[in-house]
Design goal:
It is built from five helices and five strands. It is of the alpha+beta class. The chain has a five-stranded mixed beta sheet, with helices on one face. Helix 2 packs across helix 5. The chain binds FE2/S2 (inorganic) cluster (2 copies).
Length: 154
């Protein structure tokens, strides 16, 4: 038995402690916003927050997150998340959408620690989240837009 906290709720789960967090989220908790792609920490599709930090969940065992706060795209909320969602919609950022939960989770972690990021800050923070559709410029613009909204809204 393993007890983990996800999106503010406590879950007691009968899983092998070595199970990657990604599979616990997707299969046990049905939080399918977190995506599986490479499985080897190369694409960023599986990004969630662990204690507020953007973290890849495909190679992180469930036992490693006991006692920590896990947030998935389904539980991402607050002023930064609102500003990002609005900017994403305004900028019509997603194409196929597959990578976008990982992009948004990474962008949210960035803006919470750096509310006024430069292009270079954005490129560095977002560099490990790949997008086959090439939405990088739209993502960068949307993060700047969200930063402006967040600044004026708070
Ligand atoms: S599925 Fe985790 S980084 Fe690709
Ligand atoms: S929007 Fe299609 S992979 Fe990024």
């Amino acid at each position: 038995m393993l007890t983990i906290r996800v999106n503010g709720a406590i879950h007691r789960l009968d899983v092998d402690p070595d199970t990657p967090l990604l599979w616990v989220l997707r299969e046990q908790l049905e939080l399918t916003g977190v995506k599986y792609s490479c499985g080897i920490e190369e694409c960023g599709a599986c990004t969630v927050h662990v204690d507020g930090k953007a973290t890849l969940s495909c190679n992180l065992s469930a036992s490693e997150v006991v006692g920590k706060e896990i947030t998935t795209i389904e539980g991402l909320k607050g002023p930064v998340a609102d500003a990002l969602r609005e900017a994403w919609m305004e900028g019509d950022v997603p194409q196929c959408g597959f990578c976008q939960p990982g992009q948004l989770m990474t962008a949210a972690a960035l803006l919470r620690t750096n509310p006024n990021p430069s292009d270079a800050d954005i490129d560095t923070a977002m560099s490990y989240v790949l997008c086959r559709c090439g939405t990088y410029q739209g993502i960068r613009n949307a993060i700047h837009q969200a930063a402006r909204r967040y600044k004026h809204g708070k």
